[in-house]
Amino acid sequence: MNGAKQPTTGGVPATNGAALSDEHHGRVAAARERFAAGADSVHGVRPEILVSWYRCREEYDVDPQLERAPAAAEGTAHSSEHDVVFAELGGLAACAAREVDGLDGLVTVTDRDGRVLASWGSRRLRSLAADSNLAAWSAWSERASGTNGMGTALESRRPVLVRGPEHWCRGFHSWSCAGVAVRDVVTRDPLAALTISCWKTPLPDAVLPWLRAAAATTEAKLRQRARHTGTLLAGALADAREAPGTPLAAVDTAGKVVLANTEAAVLLGTPADAAAYAPSDRWMPQVPALLQLTRRATARARKDPGWSGSTLLYVPFLDQPLPVAVRPVFDGSQVIGALLAFGSTDDVGSPALLDDPDRGSPGPPPFPDRVIALREDRWVLLDPREIRYAETDHDNVWLVSDQGRLLAAVRGLDRLQEELTGRGFLRVHRRFLVNLGRVREIEQGFKGALFLATDTRIHETVPVSRRHVAGVRQALGL
């Protein structure tokens, strides 16, 4: 049955603040040495650490012998949501020592790129941290400094703990670090990370609960802002002056749909009109190029508030490019999203979004050849057609496939959905992504509820949440 929890690497203790025993410390250190040397099979390492090591070795090519974190490059532009987060986390970090009993640690705030913004702690700890360059304007993303409390938290969906030799880089093995990312409540992209680090001592047990509470407090303030911006975007769509029947949609700055009329919903594969609308809800459009288009338009509008533009956008539903006009929407001086009018090119005099003459019309994105998953201590390369559905459990994504139930290497269901767009996968629930080509039966439940059967032999079903029912019916031709 779906939803069942499966073991990953057996015999590994649960994540907590306890120190590694000398014996376990040695096993992890030896496993790290073998993995860094190229081994694909190691034992006694927690799944979240092993997946992080894989990213460090295969994706980021981080030197495992690194002794100090590198200096950070200039950070990416940030929005008003980041300002809210930085102010909130700075206040929480400054008072952490009073709120966490027994804490003798360094408390650090980083931006979404893993760049340290500020640290709080005793003079002794700040001096020790300086030896590893654990200080302001240094880079602690996984890409720069390997597995660590800050960078791995930014890659994860829940608080993480990295102890001693679980760090990918040798120079950081004297530290134990716990970190949590604060995420945009709409896009789930990381905005910042809050981390507590201790030198050669275990972290207090109260650290992880405190980090969870700090992230929840900060995200509650962001959720209020999401409701506010959702209301403004819906109002902008209602006030739009377009010919009747024009496909219109309001999207946020990440390209997710806030509200679409019936005509646009058909093109985007999302629910239509106000019946499915809630100010803080967002839907992933089934138009991959829209995400990049919106982000580029947002960057353009931040530089030039008077800008609007038009371009051609490839729409899989029509299997062809379609003209679309883009008009940014502001809350004061902040860009909060855009209005899209499909089939419209009324901004003839404005600069086009795709102004590279060699680029040509955008076509379908490249498809992933393989999806990487973890079975105990081995990597499995899956053809997307082998996957029946994916389910998220906190920061883990489980793939239910012809090769069994496997832990995905990708972080977060949104990331997997983006990678598999155009391969017949559809989000049917906040926790489930389904391969429509593997749906064998549709069961109707109470009050119009739907369940998708992907394997009738074992009665394997996936629930469809109420807000996704209309999109599923449309996608399946019901």
Question: What would you say this structure looks like, in words?
Answer:
By secondary structure, the protein is an alpha+beta fold. It is 29% helix and 26% strand. It contains 12 helices and 20 strands. The strands form 4 sheets. Strands 12-11-15-14-13-17-16 form a 7-stranded antiparallel beta sheet. A 5-stranded antiparallel beta sheet has the order 2-1-5-4-3, with helices on both faces. The two termini are 25 Å apart. The model is unreliable at 1-17, 345-352 and 354-367 (pLDDT under 50).
Notable traits:
Beta-Lactamase; five-stranded antiparallel β-sheet; 20 strands; alpha+beta; 478 residues; seven-stranded antiparallel β-sheet; 3 domains; disordered N terminus
Give the topology, please.
Blueprint: H1 22-36, H2 47-59, H3 80-94, H4 96-99, E1 106-111, E2 116-120, H5 123-131, H6 142-145, H7 149-155, E3 160-163, E4 175-183, E5 190-199, H8 207-239, E6 248-252, E7 257-260, H9 262-268, H10 288-303, E8 309-315, E9 320-331, E10 334-342, E11 371-375, E12 378-382, E13 387-393, E14 396-401, E15 404-408, H11 413-420, E16 425-429, E17 432-435, E18 441-444, E19 450-455, E20 460-464, H12 469-476
Antiparallel strand pairs: 1-2, 1-5, 3-4, 4-5, 6-7, 6-10, 8-9, 9-10, 11-12, 11-15, 13-14, 13-17, 14-15, 16-17, 18-19, 19-20
Helix pairs in contact: 3-8
GO molecular function: DNA binding; phosphorelay response regulator activity
Pfam families: LytTR (PF04397)
Protein name: Transcriptional regulator, LytTR family
